[in-house]
Every structure is written in C-alpha cells, then in structure tokens.
C-alpha cells in the first residue's frame, strides 16, 4: 500500500492505565504530552532514579504516580499501554518483551522498530484535535505542520463546535435527514 498505513485513534487516557518507564528528560517529555492532552491521565512512572523536574511536575497531578524502582519490580497486568524512555536498548528490548507478554501496547522513545504505535504531533483548539503522523519518517515535519495549523485555525473554533453541537442535539428525524441538514448548514463553513 502507498503512503502511511498507521491507524489513528484518540484514546481516553483517564480510563486506561499508562506506564512510563524512565525518569529522565525524555520520560518527562512523554509525561507532559500525556498530561497536556488530559490532566486526569492515569499514569504510573517507574525508574530507580527520577529527576527532580519529573517529581516537581508530577506533584500537581493526583492521577500520576511515581515509583522509584526498577522496571521489573511492578505488575504489568495493571497496565494497558507502556511508554519506554530509558535510553538503554537492552532494557528497551526487555520492556517490549514484557509488553508483549502482558498484551500492552508499547511505544519506545526513539526506537521505532520496538514500537506498536508512535506518538504524533497534536493541534488542539478547544474540542478540536488534529493528530499528525509522518509514518515515523520526519518528526520535525510533524512539528512544523503542527505550528502551521496552530496559526491558521480560527480562534472561534470552539464556538463553531458549540453551535454545531446544539444544532445537532436539536435535530429530529432519521440519521439520513439529520445528515442532510448538517451537510447544508456546514456547506460553506470552511472556505
Ligand atoms: C517514530 C517516532 C516514535 C515515537 O517517539 O513515538 C519518533 C522517533 C524519533 N524521533 C527522533 C527525533 C526527533 N523527534 C522530534 C519530535 C517529535 N517526535 C515525535 C514523534 C516520533 N518520533 C514518532 C514518529 C512521529 C511521526 O510519524 O512523525 C513527536 C511528533 C511527538 C512526540 O514525541 O511526542 C515530536 C514532535 C512534537 C511537536 O513538537 O509537535 C524532533 C524535533 C524536536 O524535538 O523538536 C526530533 C529531532 C529532529 C528529527 O530527527 O527529525 C528520532 C531520532 C533521535 C536521535 O537521533 O537520537 C527518532 C528515532 C528514529 O527516527 O529512528
Ligand atoms: N535528551 C534528549 O534530548 C534526547 C534523548 N534521546 C534519547 O532518548 C533516550 C532517553 O533520554 P533521556 O531521558 O535524556 O535519558 P536519561 O538518561 O536522562 O534517562 C534515562 C532514564 O531511564 C531510567 N532507567 C535506567 N534503567 C532503568 C530500569 N532498569 N528501570 C527503569 N528505569 C530505568 C534512568 O533512571 C533514567 O531516569 C536516550 O536513548 C537518548 O539518547 C533522543 C533524542 C533527544
């Protein structure tokens, strides 16, 4: 197949359990990405050494737990998703094996060959969220695309969504009839 075969989804990470392994700069970046999307993200971070920046950041989020332990001193059946950020290929391979053993989806920072999924760049304006992926080929392009989209999306995006939601809630009739009305209303919305 031509192009990017990755299947995009938007996860409810307050209802899922995410394990972050590692306590350095990259672990902090991944943690920030999770929390930026959902301050109630259900995250456990494990590492024998945890940077003070990580501790300070996590202190304000009650749904984030930190454990000063080795990666193998925890029950993996408690988690749905794992993000590895140890920087050690040997440990990362063991992490991937653990993830497979316990059926967790796994992302290992900067090691695409060990990942089940990649993190993307995300643009957020209120309830609108756009995920960007380059199929792992150029993260910097994903970042640049995010910057462009952040600039061009109108500031009133949320009020447009709110209006459309109240119209949607007020519609009656069949699925087809509702779709026809919404199609008509939004025909010239983005031009
Ligand atoms: C495969 C993937 C796996 C994953 O980590 O999930 C991956 C892998 C790697 N990234 C590397 C480097 C950089 N990554 C960034 C930035 C981001 N990287 C992200 C995702 C992904 N990175 C996944 C694919 C996403 C896709 O499909 O496009 C973003 C989108 C999301 C996020 O990380 O949260 C975030 C932008 C967020 C934003 O700002 O919007 C920058 C730029 C910067 O930091 O400003 C650089 C330096 C410039 C460059 O190299 O391009 C390296 C080489 C490391 C080395 O050389 O040591 C690898 C390893 C390799 O490619 O082999
Ligand atoms: N720092 C950066 O800006 C960038 C880093 N990278 C790569 O990302 C990886 C991670 O980078 P950093 O976070 O900066 O490294 P780091 O060395 O600060 O963090 C690694 C973390 O893994 C933890 N760790 C080690 N053994 C462990 C174990 N057995 N169980 C649990 N945790 C364990 C350590 O305690 C430490 O907190 C490295 O491969 C690095 O080359 C890639 C691009 C940029």
Description:
This protein has 191 residues and is α/β, with parallel strands linked by helices. The chain has helices at residues 25-37, 52-59, 89-101, 139-152, 157-170, 175-186; strands at 18-21, 43-46, 64-67, 81-84, 105-108, 121-125, 128-132. The mean pLDDT is 96. It has 6 helices and 7 strands; from the N terminus they run βαβαββαβββααα. The two termini are 31 Å apart. Helix 1 (25-37) links the parallel strand 1 and strand 2. The protein is 39% helix and 16% strand. Strands 3-2-1-4-5 form a 5-stranded parallel beta sheet, sandwiched between helices. Strands 6-7 form a two-stranded antiparallel sheet. The chain has 3 domains: 18-119, 3-Layer(aba) Sandwich (Rossmann fold); 120-152, Double Stranded RNA Binding Domain; 157-186, no CATH class. Bound molecules: ligand SHN and 1,4-dihydronicotinamide adenine dinucleotide. Ligand SHN binds next to helix 4. This is precorrin-2 dehydrogenase. Keywords: NAD, Oxidoreductase, Porphyrin biosynthesis. Its EC number is 1.3.1.76.
Which SSEs are present, and which pair or pack?
Elements: E1 18-21, H1 25-37, E2 43-46, H2 52-59, E3 64-67, E4 81-84, H3 89-101, E5 105-108, E6 121-125, E7 128-132, H4 139-152, H5 157-170, H6 175-186
Parallel strand pairs: 1-2, 1-4, 2-3, 4-5
Antiparallel strand pairs: 6-7
Ligand SHN binds next to helix 4.
GO molecular function: ferrochelatase activity; precorrin-2 dehydrogenase activity
Catalytic activity: precorrin-2 + NAD(+) = sirohydrochlorin + NADH + 2 H(+)
Enzyme class: oxidoreductase
